[in-house]
Amino acid sequence: MISFDFRSKANGVPILSKENIEYIAEMIIRDYKPENLKTPTALDVELFSECYAGLDVDYKDLSHNRSILGMIVFNDGCVPVYNPIKNKAEKLPVDEGTILIDNSLLEEDQIRRGRFTHCHEISHWFLHRDIYAVDKNQISIFDYMGEEEKTTAIKCRTTDIESTGRKQLVTDDDWMEWQADYLASALLMPVDAFTQAVKDYVRLLGVEEFFNRRGIDLYNDFWAEELSRGMARQFDVSLTAAKIRLKNLGFIKSVEEKRQCSII
User: Fold this and answer.
1) Is the same domain home to 179 and 101?
2) Which PANTHER family match (predicted)?
3) pLDDT at position 162, please?
4) Distance between CA atoms of 15 and 111, rounded to whole angstroms?
5) pLDDT digits (tens, 9 = 90+) for 48-85
């Protein structure tokens, strides 16, 4: 597995731009499966996780209200999970390099979001695991069952995964979640392969000439939505993830605070 030496703050939190993360994603994919860089295809996340990143995955009820979607464990120990039968939290022994995903993401209509969550946790492993080897006292980003546990794990909530980018990035936690989210997007939808898929699909739709702002031209709004759905199917990601990637790469854009987007 490839490793990176990137610029970081004194506490070890990486300092990364979108361009930096795109480069990291490209290097990882080139090392793992280089054909994915150019050929639009859905990444086998479980195979990638196990065979390349060397991580184990398990599914648990991570909270009573499904507010926690995933967790990455950096050191052996215990983490809290929810026992629906007893209606209370319990301590679960876990090993370093374990990804836990909430059981709700096994539901048929949540499979694609589950894939993204899985890749989000893998991205934390790539980007943030060295922080804890440097200073295990940086515990502000962790939730512990008790101080004696000393389990090092990051819990990722619904607001952290497939973020629309509207959340203000203030704390180290915010930045690390944004970094993991952006890397997950770039791994699942590599920039060159994604760009090719967009061009092919726009050509198929016959809307190459459109350059409009959504919210003004409803006809073009329809095609922007259809493009998002096409990319979601192509890369086996949620519609939200596809829209965010299209927006980040400049293929669609929002007008003011409207969530709708158009081809540009």
Assistant:
1) yes
2) ANTITOXIN HIGA1, BLL0069 PROTEIN
3) 79
4) 31
5) 999 999 999 999 999 999 999 999 999 998 999 999 99
Within a 10 A sphere around the Cβ of 252, how many other Cβ atoms? 27
The pLDDT confidence band at residue 145, using thresholds 50, 70 and 90, is very low
pLDDT above 60 (res 128)? yes
User: Per residue, what are the HEC states of the chain?
Assistant: CCCCCCCECCCCCECCCHHHHHHHHHHHHHHHCHHHHCCCCCCCHHHHHHHHCCCEEEEECCCCCCCEEEEEECCCEEEEEEECCCCEEEEEEECCCEEEEEHHHHCHHHHHHHHHHHHHHHHHHHHHHHHHHHCCCCCCCCCCCCCCCCCCEEEEECCCCCCCCCCCCCCHHHHHHHHHHHHHHHHHCCHHHHHHHHHHHHHHHCCCCCCCCCCCCHHHHHHHHHHHHHHHHHHCCCHHHHHHHHHHCCCEEECCCCCCEEEC
Distance set, CA 170 to CA 78, 173, 175 (Å): 29, 8, 7
Judge whether 5 lies within some domain: no
Q: How, if at all, do strands 252-254 and 261-263 pair?
A: antiparallel
Range of the domain at 238: 191-263
Residue 137 lies in a domain: yes
CA-nearest of 166, 195, 157, 160 to 181 is: 160
Distance of alpha carbon 98 from alpha carbon 235, whole angstroms: 25
Question: Who's near 172: CB < 8 A, 6+ residues apart?
Answer: 9, 11, 13, 140, 141
Tell me the residue type at 18.
K
Q: How many domains does the chain have?
A: 2
Q: What pLDDT band is residue 205 in, cutting at 50, 70 and 90? A: confident
